[in-house]
Amino acid sequence: MESLAQKYQPLLANDLAINDFEAAATGRMDCVDNSSNTTTYLSILRDIGELDGWSVSSPRVRKRFNFTAVHWTAVIIDTETGVSWSVDSWYRPNGHLPMVMPLRSWIAEKKAWEPPFERLNTTPRSVRALCNAQ
C-alpha cells in the first residue's frame, strides 16, 4: 500500500528508514507518521476482509517521556489468542515490509531482526543494513 501511495505522493520515496540518514529530505516521515499510515492501511485491509483473525488497534508508544527514545508503532491483535502485535514500518524504507513482533517484546525494546524474531523479519540483519536497504 505504501508503494501505491508513493505513486500519488512521490515525496514518500524520500522516506528511507529510521531518521538519521534523511534529516534534510522533504517527505521524510517519523515513527508517528509511519504508525498512523500503517494503522490506516491495516484498517483498509480489515474493512475489505483481508485481515481475518486480526483486529486493528490504536498505535502504541514506548518511552513516551524520553524525547530521544520515544517511539510509536501500529498494532494488530490476534482475535483467537488476544496477543497484540507491533507492525513497525519506521525501520524500513517506504514500500518495504514492516517489522512485526509481539507488542510486549516491542515495548521491551527487543530487536525484530534478532532472535527469536528474525524468522518473522528475515532481512536485514542489522541496523546498518536497515539503513542501507533500498
List its salient traits.
134 residues; alpha+beta; four-stranded antiparallel β-sheet; 4 helices; 26% helix
> What structural category characterises the helix and strand content?
alpha+beta
Q: Would you count the extended β strands for me?
A: 4
What gap, in angstroms, lies between the N and C termini?
A: 17 Å
Strand count, sense and barrel status of the largest sheet are:
4 strands, antiparallel
Low-confidence stretches: none
Tally of individual helices: 4
Q: Give, in order, the helices and strands.
A: HHEEEEHH
Helix content, binned percent:
25-40%
Instruction: Give the mean pLDDT.
Output: 80
Sum up the overall morphology in one term. Answer: globular
Account of the protein in words:
The chain has 4 helices and 4 strands. It has helices at 2-8, 31-47, 103-107, 127-132, and strands at 54-62, 71-78, 84-88, 99-102. It has a 4-stranded antiparallel beta sheet with strand order 1-2-3-4. A hairpin with a 5-residue loop joins strand 2 (71-78) and strand 3 (84-88). 28% of the residues are buried. The mean pLDDT is 80.
Report a brief summary of the structure:
Helix content is 26%, strand content 19%. The chain has 134 residues and is α+β, with helices and mostly antiparallel strands. It is globular, with a radius of gyration of 14 Å.
Topology summary:
Layout: H1 2-8, H2 31-47, E1 54-62, E2 71-78, E3 84-88, E4 99-102, H3 103-107, H4 127-132
Antiparallel strand pairs: 1-2, 2-3, 3-4
